[in-house]
Amino acid sequence: MTDVRAGTVTTSVPARLFDLGALSATTMTACWRAVLFSAVVGPAPPEGEPMTTEPERPPIVVGVDGTGRSRATIQAAAQEARCRDATLIAVMAYSTERPLGMAARPVATLAVASDERLAAETALRDAVADALGDEAGRVELRTALGLAGRNLVDTARKVNAQLIVLAGRGSTSMLLGTVSQYVLRRAPCPVLVVPES
Description:
By secondary structure, the protein is α/β, with parallel strands linked by helices. The chain folds into 2 domains: about 1-45, no CATH class; about 60-195, Rossmann fold (3-Layer(aba) Sandwich), CATH 3.40.50.620. It contains 5 helices and 5 strands. Strands 3-2-1-4-5 form a 5-stranded parallel β-sheet, sandwiched between helices.
């Protein structure tokens, strides 16, 4: 190992690989800057493709619940995404549990998890298309099994979201719903709650 203490660089690279004594301090500094730049910026783009210096902006996550409130929420999230030049990710949670009363359906007719997932995917796609029309194709759609609040927070954390948008219940003077409360307490980013129109 080599240790250059003349006010320049300390390295753990074996001396037999490089003759550090033959390099000037300026050359060594330039080399280390190139290494650090490569580590921070990443590899060069393939030949012929332009090099972009602007990092990709974190996405915006919108919670969709399949009710009439979703339309205004999706539209508000899409407007935020346009203003911030960000990707929009629409998330809908679904459950395989259904309340069964005394007159429960026969076991053969109970929906399975894949049926519920397909129903959620269809409802999500329809809600986004209804709210955004032709712009719906730009939205990434995700469905997740489980609780809505937890899925929104988990998705936002996984994609490093810059904003979560969700629907409020009632007027702004009323208490927030349980999903809104959960997200507000645990969100890894700012949260926009869109009041009911």
